[in-house]
Write a structure and sequence with these properties.
Low-confidence stretches: 11-35
Largest sheet: 4 strands, antiparallel
Order of helices and strands: HEEEEEEEE
Strand order of the largest sheet: 1-3-6-5
Shape: elongated
Radius of gyration: 25 Å
Structural class: alpha+beta
Strand content: 35-45%
Number of strands: 8
Distance between the termini: 90 Å
Helix content: 25-40%
Amino acid sequence: MKKLFIIAVAGLAISLSACNSNTSSKENTQDSVAADSASAATIVFESPVYDFGKAKDGDKVSHDFKFTNTGTSPLIITNASASCGCTVPDYPHEPIAPGASGVIKVIFDTSGKVGVQNKQVIIASNAATPSTELFIKGEVQSLTK
């Protein structure tokens, strides 16, 4: 019985010391994340929304979303994906230096998309906010109107 009690106390002591060392590790991780975000790239768009107004069914609507890296590290865009196959983003694949600007070109093919449209493009990057949303919206009119 005495041995069982000693084993239980030893196990409890090990568990508590493991919890304390884990907390210290979390604090170090949070400190490094804060330091990383202070020196991170920052992507700022002139406007994240483009309203094309009205277009005819079958038109291809194109817009250049202009942005600037206002951070202190090079901005690397790793992906740009659209909410559907009718919307195609084209983004710079080379790093954007701090203070430099770039363009993400989005083309929306209105074929078969009659009515009010609101297409989303998600930009993935190494910025402090790693995911940014862009929108292209408007109304596609039928050719028979």
